Amino acid sequence: MRTVLALVPRGRGLLAVLLGAAAVLTGTLLLATSGALITAASRQPESLLVLLPMITAVRLFAVSRATLRYAERVVAHDLTLRVVARLRVLVLERLVPLAPAALLGTRGGELLARVRSDVDELQGVVLRLAAPVAVAAVAGGVAVGLTATVSPPSALVLAVLLTVLGVAVPVLAARAGRGAAVTTARAEAATGAEVLDLVRGLADHLASDGGRTALATLDRALAAQQAAETRTARLTAATTLAREGVPVLGVVAALWFVGQDVTTGRTDPVLLAAAALGVLGAFEAVASLGPAWASAGRIRAAAARVTALSAQTPVVTAPEQPAPRPAGCGLVLDQVGFSYPEASSPVLAGMDLEVAPGEKVALVGPSGSGKSTVLALALRFWDPTSGRVLLGGVPADRLALDDVRAAAAWAPQAPQLLGGTLAGNLRLARPDATPAQLEAALHELGLGEVLQRVGLDGWIGEAGERLSAGERARVGLARVLLGPAPVLLLDEPTAHLDRAGADRVLQLLLTDPRAVLLVTHDEQRLDPAWRVVRLAGAPG
Amino acid sequence: MRRGWTGRVLALPGSRGLLPVCVLLALVVAAAVAVQWTLLARVVGRVVDQDVAPAALLPLLAGVVLAWLVRSGALAVRDRTAARASSRVRAGARRALAEKLLRLGPEAAAGERAGELASTATEGVARLDAVVGRFLPGAVNAVVVAGCLLVLVLVLDPLSGLLLLLTGPLLVVFLWLVGTHAGRAAERQWESLGMLGALLVDTLRVLPVLVAHRRGPSAARWLAGVGEAYRTATLKVLRTAFLSGFVLELGAALCTALVAVTVGIRLFEGGLELERALLVLLLAPEFFAPLRALGADQHARLEGRPAAERLFALLDQPEPPRGRRPVPPGVPHVRLVGVTVRAQDRVLLDAVDLDLPPRSRTALVGPSGAGKTTAARVLLGLTTPCTGAVLVDGVPLAELDPDAWRARVAYVPERPWLLPGSVADNVRLGRPDADHAAVGRALAAAQLLDVVRRLPRGVDTVLGEDGARLSGGERLRLALARAFVADAGLVVLDEPTSQLDAAGEAAVLAALDTLAEGRTVLTITHRQAPLELHQRVVRLAGGRVATETGVAAGEGLTVTGTVPAGGESRA
User: What range does the domain containing B540 cover?
Assistant: First the structure.
């Protein structure tokens, strides 16, 4: 929560609170002055001039109230959008050091729904929580003070009732609603994940069982969400009852105490209606606290999840004083052992591997023997459990993370393309590449036809879905080849290609001056120029 | 049109019955408000005019409290009823959307961006809450409560009543004028919100690659820029949208002030008594309160409008005609006759003829983008040909019941989709009522028993999102097990072994050979090993059939060069 509140700019926050409190107070004063005016008029003073100040005040309050309220809403919403924008960036920035290792275990759809809906939920932190609380404190305090000048007992009752409505009821409701808030948020996230799964896998669902399973799962998620929302609705109704009902006690108390003072002659009768109406108006100060606290549980749950996300320790950390970028660019694995967290047996044990500058090495071995893991270790997505990874002779964990990833370029097995254009994807590897260079990179991989079809700046669809799997793989490869890294780490780059395409890619890699570490299962297709390293699968 | 979409939202099954309940409760509220303020005005009048001590007015004060509580209770009941109706409506809309998507098929989801569809179903539907949960009860209150109180004030003091009668409708007109403008702007804002969501999702999805390319920080900067643009756009919308609130607030406050001043002057001149004047003053804000609330609710309703329109546009999309004829029993004879498929401006398949006799085994080869996967989708009925037809035992596929047809076809894509459930759940996708033994036999046939035994809870092990616990070859064999248990007549495989090493491929092919027994098989591949299992190799190029070759004959295989004979002898 504190992390989130720290994102609120101070000056704008204060301005929003002052405007809000002033709007509430002018409303209260409008009612009170009107009551006083009517009572005073009914007592028929000698001249209308006696009423004139009250008439002026009534008009002034009427105009300024609407203006103040408008200004407050604009300032508070601007504030909210600023906070949310900062929050999105904060979340992304904190996810960057965790990616990709710590993200592997989380359900993709849930993570996605979580970050989106949590960030959206946290929009309310200013508008629904922080601002109403501050406004209530300021406006409520001033209103109680004003009432005290007329009738201290009424002020006391008002103070108590404001505390009950503004603090006790919301806190109780929040405690009762905390469980429901968490359940609702979770149910909502689960529904989101199911919907996304259905949309993304529509073809697969239809092909496997006509979507029956997906619908049944969605139904369960929807029912859970409805049940959670029903509990929330009950609580909302209870707070409505308190919010609407409690003010009557303050009004009646004001009538009682001020009325006694009037009949005993201690107070001007003009103040009776003014006090009753003023007290009624003062409750507007806490009116938005009921809904505020109803959502407080959800907001706090969202803040907690976002904070927990950013509090995760990255599996790799950058050294405090990184070694200078090495001159050499060889890759060495020295007696490396590795097991994934929660895995029962290691993936790699005592592995030695050396890729000299310019050398072409192919990693082969059965599925699950740790081929992709070797690449992930070379990129320092993970640190080995034992042994060392050396880049240019320097242990990878003593280099700046950016230097590690500048030394080695990676094409994952499933090519991850950004939605957007070919140029945008290629420039990830080399932001300053000219169009001619981009086109050359595509032509080199036989993507001339694609280039003609979509163009460098044509829309390739979400995740590149307008391209075929083979084309996506080659674009991913072109991206890596375009980059300046002296070592290329390629995970099954030919899996999606036909024979001619695969041979072309392998030949291209051989003529490239850079070192290549290639994960493949197509051992028989390799030219003898490749040095083949076989992973047998870990012992056990 | 504006009434159209709100009306449709309110006609959804979940919100029926809400309207009469709201009207009834609004009448209760109006009556309670009238009683409450009448009694309070009387108390003040007695004290001020007749010097009666409050202690002598206890019954009146008790009456005030009681009426006040009745009013609060009615509002609470209304809130709860509306919230539950809204919850029902949203669940119903999501369900209807899911069913519609399934009927429309994957082409509908490909045309519209998947992220956008998902955000319509989640955040878009969530915005219907503003219509059902807030706008409807608010509008009813505005009509019923404001109407009743107006009549009361007209009776009590015609002059003040006239003032309200003039101001109220004026405010509603203002509300409508500002509202339509805000509505258009809200639509634009919604579009940018959808884009922002898609961008965040997209960025998170490719985060590993961004990190590997050292682009994490620049992605954050970029996102900050998008967020800033969104803030500016939204604020512009809100500045206008808040104007309606400003006008309402100003009108209500000015009118209350006007009532106070005119009533005050008439009191001064002696034309009115205090009790009645006070009651009129107390009723004026109560007349405006529901109208003001309506302003906020109207804003919320307009925010929901683009989402609702998108939802209804989707629900109204014409569905492809569904065939009703039963699928003929036995292993089908499938033929593609002159099938042409175009997508956007591209021809994916161009007059393709392909004959798949019962129990034949055909391999489909060709370069990337030749239309192999499209051909498989056409066979499954997931893609409808622009011209030409698929004939199943002579009957056009379009006339067959698509669900029944898909139940008879086992589809094994390159990267099969897995349920987040257990191993057994995934096998049972093929046939939901398969018993334990059948699941075991299918796993054995797919050579997965060893793998499953190593899992912590055997066949009941939960695989996690997208089968995270399995290797590429294992998930493929799991999909084969699914095909075994389904006992399908036609098996379509799309690149079954492209991601596997030699040993993994051998295991899959052995399983495939068993599976193929007595079924029609079509395998898309660019690998050599699977070809040995097939009798015939069809080569696609540029969406056309280039060559058709018998494997057994081994004559001039353009793809493989040297394929040993033997496909036939295995059968």
Answer: 334-570
